[in-house]
Specification:
Elements (H helix, E strand, L loop, with lengths): L2 H4 L16 H18 L5 H4 L3 H5 L1 H122 L3 H31 L4 H22 L15 E2 L1 H12 L3 H12 L8 E4 L3 E5 L5 E2 L2 H19 L11 E8 L2 E8 L6 H4 L21 H11 L3 E7 L4 E9 L4 E11 L2 E6 L9 E5 L3 E8 L9 E5 L7 E5 L8 E7 L4 E7 L4 E9 L1 H6 L1
Helix pairs in contact: 2-5, 5-6, 6-10, 7-12, 8-9, 8-10, 10-12
Length: 548
């Protein structure tokens, strides 16, 4: 029933019942009385008016019979009229009750809507006040940002000028000491001071890049304008190479940078590892070392860096981009329901069709489709815990930086997939044993079992009395995956050994272990959960800008 029908008033009907008036009885009674009166006073002789003696003798009885029949008929008419009147009155009572109930419901509905209206008015008023406060704070922030930018430029110029002079003087002092001093200790102190000055200068430039971006009106447009300047200087460098002209002095800052060095510098801000710091130092002295593949792994990270062409722009922007994404991956990697000793935050840098592609993977909770649409919006945060609530700025800044660099950024889930494998063990006596196994997810956990058994296990274990010399793992070929065999050689039968697959991937799918004991040798095959989230960033290389 629609609202118009539900709120419509019930129409009261007018009573149309007819009340019977007993005029027949009254007329008969009057006629009978008149006839009796005339017969008693002998005004008229009835014997003369009526010829039949029978009628005269039975006149009284006929009158009584007629009156009786008339009374019965009148009573019947009266009873029927009474019943109709009672029915009509009952119907009227029902309609009155229905009208009262409808009125009561309308009153309740009006009260309810009134409460909703008051709440809505309160909500709108609160939001208006909140937005007004936000606008006032935003205007206040813009004023502060302009003042900070103005004073920041002056301070930045003074500090960088002083650091450059100190680095230049320290460089001359280093050369002088190397020529006129035999003390290696003195030379090392001077070199350490030079490294400290250079680190301070790099940190100051990174701080200024953060301040510059945070006070920009439009982040992506601001970066895009800087990229246009770098692009123009890069074209000048490429065109003047043919003329053998040195125009580097006329260009204050190099228009390009190595993404490998930017990624290494990002990790130097997050962790302190001697291997990474040495790699950064060597890369600054000899940039050609960045054209060699580099792999690093510790308890937190798994890093793979391939030789990648240089990019246009400011490396500090990419450092800020990567720092936000890596910290985000670190946070959500701790929220995984099931921990594994092999879990790492994986970061890969590689060239990909004219772009530098960064892959950042963590084995944390998956992102649903609705959330994926909002993760890059300003103010939207997926960090919703009691001890920490994100501000919704990190991924927004990442999106704006990538947009300014004319690149792309996306996040997609990594899912578990069932698979079938063949595990072949070769013993020292050349005995070969084959075990077909399958992997699947049971109750959100990855499990494995032999195809000859029904029980699912977290780990498939085998025990042999003879030492193992060779292990092979082959996938069962399907329409999508061709056959592939992996060989693991047991180099020392008395030493524990482990192999992760895929060896060249950030995402490890299973672990094969060899464990020797006194009289037995154990082989275990453990599938690894890979469910997680991977961010993919693609930034056009400087060469791709030149080609276009």
């Amino acid at each position: 029933m629609s609202n118009s029908q539900s709120t419509e008033k019930p129409q009261l009907r007018k009573p149309k019942g007819k009340f019977y008036f007993p005029w027949i009885t009254i007329a008969s009674s009057l006629g009978f009385v008149i006839l009796q009166g005339l017969s008693n006073v002998n005004l008229i002789k009835l014997e003369q008016l009526i010829a039949s003696n029978y009628i005269i003798q039975n006149f009284s009885s006929m009158a009584i019979l007629t009156i009786s029949m008339t009374l019965v008929f009148e009573y019947w008419l009266f009873s029927r009229s009474k019943n109709k009147t009672n029915q009509l009155i009952e119907q009227q009572h029902k309609e009155v009750n229905l009208y009262s109930q409808s009125k009561r419901k309308q009153q309740q509905r009006a009260n309810q809507y009134s409460d909703h209206t008051e709440k809505l008015k309160g909500f709108i008023a609160d939001k208006l006040i909140e937005y007004m406060d936000f606008d006032e704070k935003f205007i206040h922030f813009k004023g502060i940002a302009a003042e900070v930018r103005h004073n920041g430029v002056i301070s930045y110029d003074k500090i960088t000028t002083a650091l450059n002079k100190a680095i230049e003087q320290q460089g001359f002092l280093t050369l002088y000491e190397q020529q006129n001093s035999d003390s290696n200790e003195t030379n090392q102190q001077t070199i350490d001071a030079l490294v400290d000055y250079q680190s301070a200068l790099d940190a100051m430039r990174y701080l200024w890049a953060l301040l510059d971006l945070s006070t920009a009106d439009n982040l992506s447009m601001h970066i895009g304008n800087q990229l246009i300047d770098c692009e123009e200087n890069y074209y000048r460098l490429q065109l003047d190479q043919e003329k053998s002209l040195d125009i580097t002095q006329s260009i204050p800052v190099s228009p390009t940078f190595e993404p490998q060095l930017a990624l290494l510098t990002t990790f130097s801000l997050l962790i302190h590892e001697v291997k990474l710091n040495n790699r950064i130092t060597l890369a600054k002295i000899n940039p050609a070392i960045l054209q060699e593949p580099f792999y690093f792994e510790n308890e937190q990270f798994r890093i793979s860096i391939a030789p990648t062409p240089e990019l246009l722009g400011n490396p500090n922007h990419i450092i800020l981009l990567l720092e936000n994404l890596i910290k985000n991956a670190q946070f959500f990697s701790t929220k995984s329901r099931f921990k594994q000793a092999t879990d790492r935050v994986g970061i890969r840098l590689e060239p990909h069709h004219g772009s530098a592609r960064f892959l950042i993977y963590n084995r944390g909770p998956l992102i649903d489709e609705d959330t994926q649409k909002d993760i890059f919006k300003l103010g939207f945060s997926t960090r919703r815990t009691k001890e920490h609530h994100g501000k919704g700025l990190g991924l927004f800044f990442a999106k704006e930086i990538v947009t300014g660099y004319q690149g792309s950024i996306s996040a997609h889930n990594i899912y578990e997939k069932p698979s079938q494998l063949i595990l072949m063990i070769t013993l020292l006596d050349d005995t070969q044993i084959c075990f077909p196994i399958e992997i699947n997810t049971i109750e959100d956990k990855i499990h494995v079992r032999s195809m000859f058994e029904q029980t699912w296990m977290k780990e498939f274990k085998l025990t042999f009395e003879a030492a193992v010399s060779h292990i092979e793992v082959a996938n069962a070929p399907t329409e999508d995956t061709p056959p592939k065999t992996l060989n693991f050689e047991v180099l020392d039968t008395d030493t524990k050994q482990e192999w992760l697959y895929p060896a060249d991937s950030l995402i490890k799918r299973w672990l094969v272990s060899y464990q020797p004991q006194k009289k037995h040798f154990h082989i275990s095959f453990k599938p690894l959960s890979i469910a997680g989230v991977e961010f993919e960033i693609k930034l056009p290389t400087a060469e791709s800008h030149l080609d276009s």
